[in-house]
Design brief:
By secondary structure, the protein is α/β, with parallel strands linked by helices. It folds into 2 domains: 188 residues, Response regulator (Rossmann fold, 3-Layer(aba) Sandwich); 154 residues, Rossmann fold (3-Layer(aba) Sandwich). The chain contains 11 helices and 14 strands. Helix 6 links the parallel strand 8 and strand 9. The longest helix has 17 residues. It is elongated, with a radius of gyration of 21 Å. It binds alpha-L-arabinofuranose. The site of alpha-L-arabinofuranose has 12 residues, from helix 2 and strand 11. The site of alpha-L-arabinofuranose (AHR) has 12 residues, from helix 2 and strand 11.
Length: 354
């Protein structure tokens, strides 16, 4: 499992206020001196995002590039963004890339041409949309990255975008590993498991996988991953991939799925293969959907690590702070938790599940 940036870099970036990027000169950003300001900002073409000043704080036009609308998590995120835009009295211009990198790059170009005051991007994968984010910066449109990150060596917070608002996916992977280790008997357990990974190249797949694999190897070396395969964060694909894998590895003791949708599909496939998820095969996944929490309450899934999709409040607070000229941190972290049956946490969380 590949890491695009180390935990060290992440924590360093977190503690680095974006205002520090003011130290970069306009010239260093490769900009010309001609000013082509969007309607509500002052900006020198090509300049550092942190040097862009919005000239109004009310009635902003906000562009929103969503990577897909294909499951409970994404619908909850979309509603959260829509609700906060409405509450702030902002105009929201939305696109949906339907899980296509090409479509999302095109969407971002269309939104840039529409000249929003600020652009929100939830990138499908880490590398593919980074160039379009840099294009927005060059066009003097400040960008906030929401939920999934871009590859920060290709587009940098404080220079190419104002901030990243989202969960700590690597920590989620560590929490998922700890829960699965516990379900399989603790650090000394000997067991075999399957890992269903998310969309290849997306930051949650890279970081959840990295966090999980690293924690498993160091905390419970007797638990081995016998198969690791993508199911693209999809319930249907999770089901079909697991239907095949369980024939090849009928003796597995556990499954880690990078999201709830894939876990739900996997549980359906395991039952169809005559297995008893929750009893002979322990399952752990990430998100916090109602469907998955109900499986935890039914004893068929061991634990769910939340990945809160309600990113609207933090994102729109960041927009307001940016508009007011306040410095933003490189990363605004959405905290997450583990929900399981045994300690009552899944039951307590259920009313908030989405
Ligand atoms: O980027 C967040 C992930 O994307 C969620 O875990 C998943 O359900 C969605 O597809």
């Amino acid at each position: 499992m590949q890491f695009s940036w180390s935990p060290f870099k992440r924590s360093f970036m977190t503690s680095m206020p974006v205002i520090a990027a003011l130290g970069l000169t306009l010239a260093a950003c490769g900009g010309s001196t001609a000013s082509t300001s969007p309607s509500a900002s002052t900006c020198v073409v090509g300049s550092n995002t942190s040097l862009v000043k919005l000239t109004k704080t009310k009635g902003l036009k906000v562009g929103w590039s969503q990577n897909a609308l294909d499951g409970a998590w994404r619908y909850a995120e979309e509603s959260s963004i829509e609700n906060e835009a409405k509450a702030a009295g902002y105009q929201l211009v939305k696109t949906n890339a339907n899980n296509s990198d090409d479509q999302q790059v095109q969407d971002i170009q269309t939104l840039i041409n529409d000249r929003p005051d600020i652009l929100l991007v939830d990138p499908h994968t880490e590398d593919a949309e980074a160039g379009a984010v840099v294009d927005a910066r060059k066009a003097c449109i400040p960008v906030i990255i929401v939920d999934r990150d871009v590859n920060e060596s290709l587009a940098t917070p404080g220079r190419d975008f104002a901030t990243f608002v989202g969960s700590d996916f690597q920590k989620q992977g560590v929490m998922a590993a700890d829960a699965l280790i516990q379900s399989l008997g603790g650090p000394k357990a000997n067991a075999t498991i399957i890992e269903l990974t998310g969309t290849t190249g997306s930051s949650p797949a890279i970081l959840r996988g990295g966090g999980f694999d690293g924690e498993l190897a160091s905390a419970a070396p007797g638990i081995k991953i016998v198969a690791e395969q993508t199911a693209n964060f999809s319930r249907a694909t999770g089901q079909s991939v697991m239907a095949t894998l369980i024939q090849q590895y009928p003796k597995i003791n556990g499954v880690f799925a990078h999201n709830d949708e894939m876990a739900i599909g996997a549980i359906t496939a395991l039952k169809a293969a005559g297995k008893k998820p929750g009893t002979d095969i322990k399952v752990v996944s990430i998100d916090g959907t109602k469907d998955a929490i109900n499986l935890v309450l039914a004893g068929e899934e061991y634990a769910v690590v939340s990945s809160n999709p309600r990113l609207g409040p933090l994102t729109f607070q960041a927009i307001q702070d940016f508009a007011a000229g306040k410095p933003l941190p490189a990363w605004i972290v959405q905290p997450d938790h583990v929900y399981e049956l045994a300690d009552g946490s899944a039951q307590a969380y259920l009313p908030n599940a989405f």
